[in-house]
């Protein structure tokens, strides 16, 4: 009811919420075969029930008189052109186990077959057996490399006088620390830690493994830090963004043929749901179609 009230107050037809719900349900079924138990819709009344309620109540909300945001459907959809779909390369991305970050101008390679994940705070890679890990994250504060190393030594229960090696990695000033240490829960580990100054910020590459696994993982964890570098011309073709783009259907073109012609990231069934048409529909000449296309990523202007 609140949704219909807001829609009507903004000049939209509140009854159209029924078609939005139907589209959401079709999207859920498309990716799960049926409505997942723990989906967005699971905590709401069933979609058919809500659609019936909308049909009953929509007429009680007077539609306000406002100028439309666009003259027709195609003009309305142009407001969505360029919308990012899925993961945004601006936050970094993986190509297999190589992590690329176009905004920070960096690349780093994690061992093959390791499980990798990109989160808000760190890029993490874990060995298949779970007995070693490596991560990349911003250092806490842009302190001097020696200061960061001493702070880390203290955090891991090491002597502040532990040996710290000064070096360079890909032309960047760096510092390295290797030692046996203990995690906060007391678990003993072999620690491989590196700090790198890169474009005015300090990044930390942390590697750790069980003490007994050190001979097996030492070289792999050291190689992660050594692989750190700025992006090269060979990296950029791999950095692509998926964006919503509007395309015009050709005369008597099917959804499937349009998807093949445009090399869409969406399957024909997904295009059909996103555009409110049947998967086997023939599209009219000039019909504006929302599709998902991959395109080269462009670094955002600072």
| Low-pLDDT residue intervals, each spanning 5 or more residues | none
- What is the CA–CA distance across the termini? 43 Å
| H-E string | HHHHEEEEEEHEEEEHEEHHEE
- Output the structural class: alpha+beta
Radius of gyration: 26 Å
Number of helices: 8
Helix content: 25-40%
Q: Taking all residues together, what is the mean pLDDT?
A: 89
Overall shape: elongated
Largest sheet: spatial strand order: 4-5-6-10-9-8-7
Number of DSSP strand runs: 14
Major sheet: 7 strands, antiparallel
Percentage beta strand: 25-35%
Description:
This protein is an alpha+beta fold and 302 residues long. The chain is built from eight helices and 14 strands. The chain has helices at residues 2-9, 17-32, 47-57, 73-77, 145-155, 214-226, 255-262, 268-275, and strands at 93-95, 98-101, 106-109, 115-118, 123-126, 132-138, 165-169, 172-182, 188-198, 201-210, 240-248, 253-254, 282-283, 288-296. The strands form four sheets. It has a seven-stranded antiparallel sheet with strand order 4-5-6-10-9-8-7, with helices on both faces. A hairpin with a 5-residue loop joins strand 5 and strand 6. Helix 2 (17-32) packs antiparallel against helix 8 (268-275). The longest helix has 16 residues, at 17-32. It starts with a helix and ends in a 6-residue tail after the last strand. The model has no long low-confidence stretch (mean pLDDT 89).
